[in-house]
Amino acid sequence: MNNETAIADGFGRTFPYLRLSVTDVCNFSCSYCLPDGYKKTGCAPFMTQAEIVRLVKAFAALGTWKIRLTGGEPTVRKDFVEIAAAVNDVPGVRRLAFTSNGYKLPERAQEYYDAGLRAINISVDSLRPDQFKHITGHDRLHEVLDGVQASFEAGFKSVKLNTVLLKGLNDAELDQFIDFVEDKPVSLRFIELMRTHDNQKYFEAHHLPGTAVTEKLLERGWRVRPRAEGAGPAQEFEHPDSAGTIGLIAPYSKDFCKSCNRLRVSAKGALHLCLFGEGGYSLRDYLQSDDQIEELQEKIMSLMNFKRSAHFLHEGNSGVRDHLASIGG
Ligand code: SAM
Ligand code: SF4
Q1: pLDDT at 230 exceeding the cut of 90
Q2: Cβ neighbours of residue 39 under 8 Å, at least 6 residues apart?
Q3: Distance between Cα 96 and ligand 1 center (Å)
């Protein structure tokens, strides 16, 4: 990833990548995220399409060129496709991605591609239908896997699968996941379960260090891929006989934050400098008219002074985040 951008912090890191949540609402109830389903919090509405476009214009003018739309489940927003097309039209946006639970993806993949979305991350926490249902609350594994195929057919060249590593729930499937990518040009990323305010007991029961994946991959002849310049925090593995690759996102590992290249904005317009650790800085007042763009840029640049070097999870900081659906993961 080209990391050139005006947005930088005091630790030599630059931020060409924005993860933009368009809604907190989700139709799934993943056991580590929203076990009781989505519950409305606060009365502030989510950003309108016009506010989202103003926000993206300000970031793009500062050099942000990669945008990921996320949520909650971004595709449950009725104007999701319009938002994607409008964001894609903002000068300076060169890569538009989104993260989805795969809901209705078989029917909608083409619409998403036609709106300008070019990279898709699909969450697949189990390849066993019963376990998938147990983890997500929905018996939709086949739909999600058909959605992976439909994404290729629609034209997506970058298809990534996100799998949260869960002790006792999907760790017996490591071989199956590795076999799954063998004949597909996908990048499957195992994500270490992160502790949030809401999932402390669950975390204790199901957190599995990423070393379980590393050991399995090395044992099966996989090798670490040399780190590309400007790459994000995932460690990538490859195998000469596999079309797909496997990545590992291990936020508790040493030096994870050193390669941080992303900022986040919540669906209610708050800038989060880190996935963990602060409540967010509202940008909403600066999103109300087109002539506020310079003011908004100044605000963003000044907030960068508050970005800390690391998330300090090791020091027991669970983050003030209730769950990751409020900020898009
Ligand atoms: N709803 C979409 C989805 O599930 O792909 C997008 C939002 S979701 C919050 C983004 C990513 O965060 C998903 O891959 C999800 O599995 C991951 N996630 C959510 N809570 C997590 C946690 N506590 N630890 C690790 N990953 C988490
Ligand atoms: Fe919804 Fe994504 Fe959270 Fe699952 S991980 S409950 S799909 S926001």
Answers
A1: no
A2: none
A3: 18
269 falls within a domain: yes
Q: pTM of whole model > 0.90?
A: yes
Q: Which ligand is nearest to the CA of 74?
A: 1
pLDDT single digits (tens) 37-63: 999 988 899 999 999 999 999 999 999
For position 2, what pLDDT does the model report? 61
Q: Which of 19, 26, 134, 144 to mutate to test the pocket of ligand 2 (most atoms within 8 A of CB)?
A: 26
Q: What residues flank ligand 2, with Cβ below 6 Å? A: 26, 28-30, 33-34, 71-73, 101, 123, 325
- Domain containing 144 equals 17-327
Which atom from ligand 2 is nearest to the alpha carbon of 99? 2
For residues 151-190, b (16+ Cβ closer than 10 Å) or e, as one string? beebebeebbbbbbbbeebbeebbeebbebbeebebbbbb
Q: The domain spanning residue 98 has which CATH number? A: 3.20.20.70
> Is residue 280 a contact partner of residue 272, using CB atoms and an 8 Å limit?
yes
Query: How far apart are the CA of 328 and the centre of ligand 1, in A?
Result: 7
Using CA atoms, how far apart are residues 83 and 212, in angstroms rounded to an integer? 39
Q: How far is the CA of 305 from the centre of ligand 2 (A)?
A: 31
Across residues 230-236, what is the average pLDDT? 80
Q: What is the pLDDT of residues 299-323, one digit of tens each?
A: 999 998 877 767 666 665 555 567 7
Give rounded-to-5 percent helix, strand, coil for the chain.
35, 20, 45
Ligand 2: atom nearest CA of 323 is 3
- If one counts the domains in the chain, the total is 1
User: What distance in angstroms lies between residue 5's CA and the mean position of ligand 2's atoms?
Assistant: 31
8 in a domain, yes or no? no
What mean pLDDT do residues 75-88 have? Answer: 98
Q: Does residue 35 fall inside a structural domain?
A: yes
> 66 pairs with which residues across the strands?
17, 95
Ligand 1 centroid distance, CA of 74 (Å): 12
Residue nearest to atom 17 of ligand 1 (CA): 329
- Quick check: is 318 in a domain? yes
